[in-house]
Amino acid sequence: MNKKIIALSVTALLTTGCNGVYDNFDPANAHGTIELNGNVEVGSNLTVDVADIDGLSGTVNYTWWAGETQISGVSGNSYTLTADEVGSYISVKAEYTDDAGQAESLLIKTTDPVPEMVSDGVITISGIPDDGVILFGAELTADVTDADGVDGSISYQWYADDAAITGATAASYTTTINEVGKQISVQATYTDSFGLVEMPVSNKTNPIIDPTSYSLTLSQTSDITVGMDLTATLSVNDATATYQWYADDVAITGATSANYTVAATDLEKTLSVTVTYQNGSKDLTETATDVVYSAVVKNAAELISAVQNAAENDVIALGSAIGGTYTDIAFDANTTGSDVGLVVSTNGVKLTRTKDSDAVIKGKTCFALTGDNVVIDGLVFEENEAFFAGGGSGDTACDSSSSTDAMLKMDGNGVVVRNTTFKDHVGDQGFFWIEIKGLNSIVERNLFSGTDASINKSGAISIWHNETDGDQEGHTVQYNHFTNFTTDGSAASEAFAMQVGRTTGEGSTHLGKNTIQYNLFDTVQVKERLFRVQGSQNTIKGNTIVNSVGMISLEDGAFNTVSDNIIIAGSGLKTGGIGLSALGHTISNNYIAEDAYTGGDRGGIYIHDDMLGNSGNKLTIANYTDAELAVTINNNTILNVAQAFGFDDKDSGCLTFPPYLNTSNNLIAATSDSGLSKTVGTESNDFTGIGCSLNSNSVKTNNHVFVSDVTDGGSVDISTVSGDVDGAETTTNADGLVSGTGAQAGVGADVSKLYKISADEVGPGSTWTWSL
Predict the structure, then answer these.
(1) Which of 81-90, 222-231, 249-258, 741-750 has the lowest mean pLDDT?
(2) Which residue, 307, 424, 672, 764, is the most exposed by fewest CB within 10 angstroms?
(3) What SS3 class is residue 226?
(4) 8 Å CB contact between 13 and 34
(5) 452 — phi, psi (to 5°)?
């Protein structure tokens, strides 16, 4: 409804004294003049201007009237009209004495009364964000203004796209999902103070937004590679939107648009982007589901190409197989040679799998890691076999000797293999899953499962030693899980879980400085040697060996340390614990239990004789004094082992080189519930029967032996305190490990330094680390 606002402008000049308005009329006097300026309407300011040619330096007194009524409280030369003056004429009287001494009284009056002032009412909507974006669930309020005033109540009706919203008749309305995509308006109905009916309608809002419809998407969240262009898209067009890209939650400098090109510095980092919208009041973040790679491959051919074209420190990820498989990678039955296989020669290259990949490398397999600092992380090898029968003939890059192949051959320095699964060796060709050369490589947190122990020249890991110090040394094998090494027939004599050193010759004297620690061997059942050690100055510590067959056998080389290991064969299994040629080794704080083996070539701790004639060992004996080659055997616990301590008599090497043994604080004990018919403390009858004895400088101190037979009749007896079965005072900890107490306190292994590793603590994806 339109209304006309009535307003009058007045400028009145009094030039006569008619009608008796001048009380002191004098024809000789020059009278003053009066003007009234301004619009005659409510809210307007009227101003009186008085002038007199006789001069006017004194005070002028003003009186204002509305009609016949004086307006109280007004004495100045201006006044703002109010609604009270509507319908009245406004007049002003000015009184003063001019500078000629004449008293003046001037009067002026508007030519029309103050008009009735009428205007349209206005209705607006409040509760709208500054950016105009309204989410459903927002409360909107109608605000009515009318200069004429409102007489009585106001009724309301809210609309969505011009359709009345049922029940929406209050001053406020909370939007619902039904209004999503629609524009909201409101109409008010009321009567103003002049009795006029008003029906103003508001402007329409922007369409209502479903807050759940605000979403942020990335053009690609997986298989992201360096150099790729990514785009972030906000589902609702918002001119206030700003962007920030992140790599591993760290803001990328300058990456503040919706588009981003993946940089080399993002390699192996997780990218994300945050959009801030609605004038900075809200934000959304979208994160990639996987890290950035240099290349993502989908089959063997793509993998070969990526490896051949790799730059230093590239990360190549195997995605789930598409367009081919990962079987028989780089194998060609008609091609042989020392470069045949997948040869990773570029330094620092990493092979891994994408996060959700199910890629499995199968079949004939040869990965030759010849570059330095190459990494294998998180791959899966299953049902693998050597390229060709009769390995070691120079047919492939993985040939390692005259008789064996490797599946993964680590020739470079600083090579790392971790979080990888090696499962189910197939075929009848012996090979090791991993062979290690070079310097300072690491094999950690892998699973080795399912090899046939009846195949000779096979096993999980083989570490080379070289005659030259500073070459082929310093490797670490840790936190791996070895399991399911079994056979349906007879285990082969040269099938091992681990081989450290590869020769009986001079190479065994090399200081390998390898560390084999905190691995779990569970159900690894080979013949005699779980570990075959043919090198010097290696450390085997903190491993858990359970339900397994085969000793830690130090055959060739000197000065190795075997400590803090738990070896529990399991009920009825016949295995042996630690075997050694007496060449300066240290056997300390080991826990050996539940071994039923009876015979001439094994024991809880067993001293080899038949390897002393090997050329490397003969060289060691020639180069060191007897005292330097003294063996230290201290603080070990041997519990319920049929032959706790034994000696070999096969080759009579002990006649020319008697074992120099210093034994102390060892606890050998048996319990009546062990299931063993007999337990022997020291088994040496055959050893002494051929004339062998210990080095005369050997020392035994505080060894406690509580078994059915302290010796088997031989002349060697390591005990200093002895007693019967069940005679040892012991206590058992939460892991079931027994330690001495009472009279046996401090004797045997310190079980606080031992940890019985479980399967979930080692192998791929594990994070457990040993701490004392």
Answers:
(1) 81-90
(2) 672
(3) coil
(4) yes
(5) -90, 110
DSSP helix/strand/coil, 38 = strand
Q: Which of 144-148, 191-195, 358-362, 627-631 has the lowest mean pLDDT?
A: 191-195
Q: Where are the alpha helices (DSSP H) in 62-127?
A: none
In the beta sheet, which residues pair with residue 458? 495
Q: How far apart are CA 168 and CA 156, in angstroms?
A: 8
Q: Which two tokens stand for residue 366?
A: 């040869």
CB contact at 8 A, 132 and 208: no
Q: List strand residue ranges (DSSP E) for 210-349, in order.
A: 216-218, 229-234, 242-247, 250-251, 259-261, 271-277, 282-287, 295-297, 315-318, 342-344
Classify 654 in phi/psi space as left (phi over 0), alpha (psi -120 to 50) or beta.
Answer: alpha
Report the 10 Å Cβ neighbour count for 669: 30
Which pair of tokens denotes residue 675? 């299931």
Output DSSP code: residue 179: G
Q: What is the DSSP string of 340-359?
A: -SEEE-STT-EEEE-TT---
Q: Do 359 and 327 touch, CB atoms closer than 8 A? A: no
Token readout for 302 is 């793509």
Q: Is 653 helix (H, G, I), strand (E, B) or coil?
A: helix
Burial 291-321 (b: 16+ CB within 10 A, else e): bbbbbbbbbbebbeebbeebeebbbbbbbeb
pLDDT of residue 154: 95
Question: Please, what sign has the CA dihedral across residues 762, 764, 768, 769?
Answer: positive
What residues contact 72, with CB distance under 8 A and at least 6 apart?
none
Q: How do strand 197-198 and strand 184-191 relate by DSSP bridges?
A: antiparallel
Stated pTM of the model: 0.76
Contacts of 279 (CB under 8 A, 6+ apart): 129, 130, 131, 240
CB 446 within 8 A of CB 764: yes
Matching residue, tokens 């980092």: 269
Q: Yes or no: say if 556 and 579 are a contact pair by the CB < 8 Å rule.
A: no
DSSP at 327: B
Q: Answer for the pair 497, 549: CB distance below 8 angstroms, yes or no.
A: no
């309301």: which residue's tokens? 156
**Structure tokens belonging to residue 201:** 């309608």
The total number of residues shown for the chain amounts to 772
Q: What rounded mean pLDDT belongs to the chain?
A: 90
* Measured distance CA(579)–CA(609) in Å, rounded: 10
- pLDDT higher than threshold 60 for residue 480: yes
Secondary structure (3-state) at 376: strand
CB 13 within 8 A of CB 109: no
Under DSSP, is residue 742 helix (H, G, I), strand (E, B) or coil? helix
> Rounded CA gap, 592 and 316, in Å?
44
> What pLDDT does residue 7 have?
34
What's the one-letter identity of residue 462? S
Beta strands in 392-466 (DSSP E): 405-410, 416-418, 421-423, 431-436, 442-444, 447-452, 458-463
What contacts 337, CB < 8 A, 6 or more positions away? Answer: 394, 395, 396
Is the pLDDT at 184 greater than 70, yes or no? yes
SS3 689: helix
Q: Can you tell me the distance from the alpha carbon of 44 to that of 38, in angstroms, rounded to the nearest whole number?
A: 7
CB-CB neighbours of 656 under 10 Å: 11
Asked if 475 contacts 498 with a C-beta cutoff of 8 angstroms, the reply is no
